[in-house]
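Case study 2.
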Amino acid sequence: MLPRSYLVGLVGVGVGPSLTPTIHMLEARALGLDYVYRTVDLTAWGVPPSEIGTLLHYAAALGYDALNITHPCKQSVVEHLDRVTEQAARLGAVNTVLFTSGAATGYNTDQRGFATALATELPRAPKDVVVQLGAGGAGTAVADALLESGVEHLILVDRDEDKAVALAAQLAGRFPTSRVDASQSDKLPVLIPAANGLVHCTPTGMADHPGMPLDPVLLHAGLWVADIVYRPLETALLQAARAAGCQVLHGGHMAVHQAADTLRLVTGREPDVARMLNTFAGLVDAAKPEARPI
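Prediction:
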């Protein structure tokens, strides 16, 4: 009898140069699994993100076991699923879809991925006041993780102020012992100097969206900075933060922990996270500059 095989995909905008398939497949090989992971780049295919429901239908029909969902479909995919876990429903965002028994079930592994990355890489990071840029799908999960980790005062800033206000109200209800506020980007010159931490959860800095999400002169040595962008790994924000003397957390840590959770969900096997982190580091070191995204 042939061994069980797995087919998994990554759906999103600009995911073509991702190293995620290699990370998944190398770890699966180490576990002795027949596992294929493909990218579904909406930009390359000319498919609008609004067609995510159609893509789910065809993925299930083509025999995919699971899909990872990334920007900009983490929230819009929810309405097209048969079931979502309690955590994903609470966050209103899904980054992993499993196809089992004719049904599509949505999970959110971003929250745990960021929480684990923060706890392992910046275990002593002060959490009195943290500013978070971005209140979208990934930002919702990260904000939840920050408050669960003990952040006392979280300030959410998003270009869509209504989105930040709504998320702040939702989180304040779930974490009554913490303070959660929404603010505007023009207040950053006041907010950042008084903060212990800065977490970036917008597409700015990605290969397809180069740039800085704020004026680098606001960064100071008393600030730790986490960026969930991992395409490229060393974003302009992290480069500026290092230059300012900040402790930094790159998006690769969250990505690897999230990948480990996906492998666990899809196969039922326990991945070796330390091995995956080493694989990731080796891939980044070996990659050409234009291929550094994961």
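Residues 111-249 form a domain with the Rossmann fold fold (CATH 3.40.50.720).
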